[in-house]
Predict the structure.
Amino acid sequence: MAEETIRALSVSGVSYSYRVLRQPERATEPVMVLGGALQGMFGWPQMEDRVGPVADVVTADLPGMGSADALPPGPSINIVCAAIERVIDDLDVPQINLFGFSYGAGLAYACAQRFPRRIARLALGGVPAHITTAQLDHWRQAADHLARGDAESFATLVTEGLMCLDERRHVTKRRLAYRYVRRSMLHAARHSPHAVDALRRALLDRPDFSAGLAGVPTLVFSGEHDTVTAPARQRDFAAGILGSRFLMIPDADHWVVLERPQDVADLAARFFTDAPLHSAPCLVPAEREEMTVGDPAYA
């Protein structure tokens, strides 16, 4: 049975904490999971269940998130990346596997650029590699609602901006996922002291997704109907990472980790243990993938 430990750390005067579920019979390096800007250390039970049997699973309330201290004004990616490297040091391991989803994918990618030798493997899902001006305006409007104390409108706008609501495209558990995401956003709005700042930083303090990467085995995966950044653009992003692979999961949008959680966790466990990916049951057939990423609706 995994042993849970929560450790408090600080970086640049900012206090934060991380949680590790230790697996006595590990088959690979620890897996650190980085989620969205409003996700905390207790939001990844599916990863714990599927990845936990083969690796220590690490989650965190990083600076500016959850229970951690607020970040100082100004750009923060360097501080947050330093906090992640501090976790690796505290784990007393030379390398970790890094799993990043959505905003967390940007953080994970930035970490791999800064200290590639500490990252054994990199899995990036729902990469926000291309955000339009209209999307930025939408999420700024959401942040403004929250700043005025209108948590209900905030939760609705953020949820709508993160999901594919086009009924012509099949998204499994769409209505259930919508209710869950909105409820989670509402909870974060009412209980997280950093919610407004975290959202604004996610919009403005972004890594350079065009900078490229080499020397770190990388998997990029996307829901077939991701409307935050189109699968075709995520494929283009993956092409800038030497030796990377891009895979799509069918009948899911940006919230693939919620709509098909066991499939995402299975894919991550395969990748982090160097098991074959082509036989994963969750992947879009090649002919359907080509049709999807070439769809003009995703341009």
Remarks:
- The chain is about 40% helix and 15% strand.
- The beta strands are 3-11, 14-22, 31-34, 57-61, 96-101, 119-125, 218-223, 245-249.
- The first helix runs from residue 45 to 51.
- The longest strand covers residues 3-11.
